[in-house]
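Weekly structure sync - notes
Attendees: PM, LS, DV (DV joined late)
Agenda: review two folding runs queued last week.

Item 1: First target. Sequence and structure tokens pasted below for the record.
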Amino acid sequence: IDELDWECFCATKFAPSTLNTAFTPSHIMPAHLMNEENDKDGIRICEMILLILRNLSYVQANTRFILQSIGILRILVGSLYFRNFMTGKEVRGPKVDRDDVDADNGNSSSNMCLHAINAFYNLAPNLDVTGEKIFLDFHLLDGTLDVTQVQTKTSKTTDTVDIKSYVDADKCGKIHGMGMVSLQIAKNFNIKDEKLTKLPDNMFRPVVKQYVKASMAIFPAFYGLLRVRTSRAVVIGSLEALILMVDNQDNKSIFLHTPDTILHQLVHLLWIPRLGPDSIEYVDPLRNAVSRVSGMKLLGGYDIAVDYEVRDRSVEILQKLTDMSDDLKRRVGRKFVVSQTDDFDVNVVRYAGQLNTRLYDAILPALTTKVGRDHTSQFAAKLLSNLSSVEDNLNGIRYIERKLLRAMDNVTPVISHIISNKILSCI
């Protein structure tokens, strides 16, 4: 397996039988797929393993051990390519016509892909793409300690527990045999942040390169996760995990090189209808009973039409990405054109040299929205402020200038201040 391309291998095995996703080229034989028809027991076993890993990730003490296992990381990353979701009549049909046990394996709201996303959501704050924390665990953690005291809640007595049962002593404590090098490592250790400062990369990168590679393998999978249309829970969970990873300063060097395909999809998710054939995980009312009645439906308009849960998270990610560099501001503000190659219909994103009207048209109503998160309007205003700070995007601000002036009557004083002093003042 080490000699195989792990992403392509998992995408092939976990692809749906319909072969309609970005990760499944049309030349893959259906017999090679790991779906309900070919390997029902294998799907169940994989899902149980992912459930166990997800439950373990909820405990903070387990996160370091999970991230230090290359095998577990590969299982989690590989499960992100599962696409054989079951939606519509297969899950919501009459109970006499379906098997609940089989339907749950690929349920769009409970599947191995979603379990892996939830696990990475819990692991995101400790995800180590630099390798410094793993290096410190292997070298500074003393694995030769015999006992540690653990006090139980029921009594005042303390029990001695062998720490070697929790820590692999063969991997840890290597600093004892490094001579004067150990002194340099200890001097450059920041005990508060558990990081190394002013230490050459060539000193610790060769030791942890396999762990860093396994940790960074999660990022390419997000392109396909954000394009899923058969599981709304997967899309929202992916956006939540992305927010935590963007907030982690250790990942800044990665997000500075965010590919255009991710930016294009985030802009696309700013305006996704909540209902109708263009929505995520569409439920056909001719086949299923849909009861989504609310008072806002009688009013109509933007707030009831947009999928605000997807929009709110996409706005937050774009705002935080454009905070990082002027290059990201320029790339987000340009118009994207998606073209297809002759080989297996692979999508390629290119710039058209024009302003991204879809972005500005989708961001503008978010300034005055009354549904969703409270800080969505502020994130939208800050995103426009970031875009206006780059000269290449000033035509986009002029494109919505009149609408911005009209929107100032219906926004909070904080947003009105951002519009007048940080956005309109740039043109």
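Item 2: Second target, run right after the first with the same settings.
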Amino acid sequence: LKGGARTAAYMLQYDSVHGKWGTHDCREAADGKSFTVDGKPIGFSASNTIEGVPWKELGCDMVMECTGNFLTTKVLQPYLDGGVKRVVVS
């Protein structure tokens, strides 16, 4: 996603179809590498490869895969092999 964590937070808060996401506050975190939802940190990665992120080290339980590039169990397997417990494909 071009624009990084700031753009991801904005796109989560304001949907072109559904409008604003209720009263939730989504914004870029101070580190510039993640964003927050109601003050709770949400990790963010713009890596081009699944293997390019140390999922287990980051303590990642769930990934939202929204690129449209990874749609089969076979190509999503590296997430699970890397320690992710669930992958939500959108």
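Discussion on item 2: Helices lie at 4-13, 55-58, 73-81.
Action: LS to circulate a short write-up before next sync.
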